[in-house]
Amino acid sequence: MNCENIKEKLSLYIDNLLEPDEREKIREHIESCDSCRIYYDKLLKLGQIVNNFVTTDKTEYWESQKDKVMDKIEQAESEKIINVQPVRKQNRFYKYLAVAASLALVGFVSIYESQEFNQVKGLFDDSEETTTEQLMETDSAEDIEVRGGRAGETTFEAEVPTDKAESIDDEIMDKDDSIENIVDSYSNKPAIAPKKRTEKSQAVPEKEEKAKISESVEGELSVGMPKPVQPMLKGVAVDDVSIDDESPNVIRFKSKPPLPAEVEPLTIKSPQPIVEKEVGGQQTEILYKASGIKDDKEAGNLDMKMSVQSDEGKEYMMEPRQEKDSAITEVNIYRIRLDSLEEKYAGIYSPHYRESSAKGRAVETPVSLDPVVLEIAETCFQVGILSLDENEREEMIDKLRQLSIHGSPETIEKIQRYIVLLLTAE
Amino acid sequence: MEETDGADKDRFLLVKAKDGDKNAYGKLVLIYQRRLVRQIFMMMGRVDTAEDIVQEAFVKGYFALDSFEINRPFYPWITKIARNLALNLIKKDNKMSVFSELDKTEIEVVDVSDNPLETLIDKENDRRLAKAVLALPIAFRTVFVLRTVEKMSYEDIAKKLKISVGTVNSRLSRAREKLVEMLKDLL
Questions:
Q1: What is the ipTM of this complex?
Q2: Quick check: A354 and B66 CB within 8 A?
């Protein structure tokens, strides 16, 4: 047997991992080879030294170590809050963060605008590109006024979607608040939030025809926020539609309005266009998309729910678990997601969260909880950043702070960034 | 008998700790931290890092007590937490990565001047051993410590480090060879 190759075998030998016949061969070799026997003895001794290796006997050292553990536990318990202050104190990090935050904001704005722009762009007959700013300038109207109605035609008023949408046909309806209600409900603002939201709509006919419905909350354009309502009315010629100055939420049809026919599929990623217009000759379409509303009945349910829940103070107006298909805005998708995660990992915000209670997860160590924590944290962040409601954002920040207890160092770092981004979000 | 008493005492302390008795948990920390620090120190090579990891493990352990089965031994559980923290750190730190330095087999000159071995290790021989182990390339050291200090099986080590059992064997053998060389006056 080659003495050079035997070292690896000797390692296995002292670990008692060799097959009996091989073990026997090695034993024979050690007995006959001095250098290998010496090496073997040294390996055994090394094993002893390692086994006898002890750390200090000093009680005070171990007491102080224990105290540090207990202090950290106390700290984690009493705070329950990840202290954001140290992060702020780190100048470089904070500067970096500020840059990142503003970049993110710019990103949001540009995504928002580009989507909006794309939606609006199609409205121009001459396909002349007009910037969003220009559009905004012309977007002061409280009304959608579509000129060119044919005189003598019966005027139909339709509001979509409403609880009475089924009776749109042949019926004149005038519910000024219906769309506004839906706006509020779909954006899921808690009832305590000011209901100053109005839907501004404008459509300029002919060549300068510019139609745009923008959402405005307390006079501010909700940059980066998901679009609220997209009620749908497809197949209506612009000429057929007008909207009152006094009741901008009501669309008047000069001919028989169509049924709110198509059901938009539930989309998660991007906000739905508020207004779409296809320009083909003279034909113009304004789409109010109420994605998720499958039928008139459901629209009715929604309306009902809305009012019920608005009495419940901070409760969201829509109950996501019952109304999964009715999610209209992006933030609602995240709210629903968060709800289901919270349901699945009930008690996750508690520092004593019992991992084994996570359904369907064989969790062995706290480390494996990390992906869950991260997922919930990300969802909280999305809700917080997308929500128009200050209180809800604060709620999300609280949740993030509580979550961070379970996170790995990397996750905690991420969560802290989320918190800072939410705190600095306008 | 002693073993049983120990287990009973653990269980007693654990039940109290689960109820939120921090003193009871503190006693558990005192009982087990020494053994745990030894393991983690050998793996990480730095006293301060080992202290941090062990503290972190006990903190995490406290907040995860609800998930701990009272009839199971505490030490393997808390060790697992600490070991995962240590391995995460090794993976994270490129310099220490067991994955990026697979081929690096040179003995490294480790600067231990700022590594207060004296605070943790009383005996000179133990300090010699510690320094020798620290001088091992991280890829070797990790395998060596997991095997000789933590008594893990080759298979478990292979799985943990995502390397083959053959690699575990060869690294372990090389680590032992280098240590025998470095500690020849002691052996």
A1: 0.80
A2: yes
Q: What is the DSSP letter of B95?
A: G
The SS3 of residue B84 is helix
Q: Residue A148 — left, alpha, or beta (φ > 0 → left; ψ -120 to 50 → alpha)?
A: left
Angle at A96 between CA A91 and CA A100, to 5 degrees: 145
CB contact under 8 A, A47 and B121: no
B30: which chain A residues are within 8 Å (Cβ-Cβ)? Answer: 62-63, 66
Q: Out of B22, B51, B92, name the one closest to residue A65 (CB).
A: B51
Residues in A 54-113 with any Cβ partner in B closer than 8 A: 54-58, 61-63, 65-66, 68-70, 72-74, 76
Q: How far apart are CA A249 and CA A184, in angstroms?
A: 13
Asked whether B36 and B82 are in contact (CB, 8 A), the reply is yes
- Are A55 and B41 inside 8 Å of each other by CB? yes
- Residue B109 CA: distances (Å) to CA of A20, A43, B116, B120, B136: 40, 23, 17, 21, 9
Reported pTM = 0.42
* Phi/psi at A211 (5° precision): -120, 140
Is residue A364 classed as helix, strand or coil in its secondary structure? coil
Chain A environment of B64 (Cβ under 8 Å): 355, 365-366
Q: Does B60 touch chain A (CB under 8 A)?
A: yes
Minimal C-alpha gap between B184 and chain A (Å): 8
User: What does the block give as tokens for A170?
Assistant: 């042949």
Backbone angles phi, psi at A53, to 5 degrees: -60, 120
Identify the sign of the CA torsion A285, A291, A294, A295.
negative
Cα distances (Å, whole numbers) of residue B32 to B46, B86, B124, B182: 19, 17, 23, 30
Tens digits of residue pLDDT in A233-288: 444 444 444 444 555 444 444 444 444 444 444 444 444 444 434 444 443 333 33
Give dist(CA A351, CA A49) in Å, integer.
Answer: 41
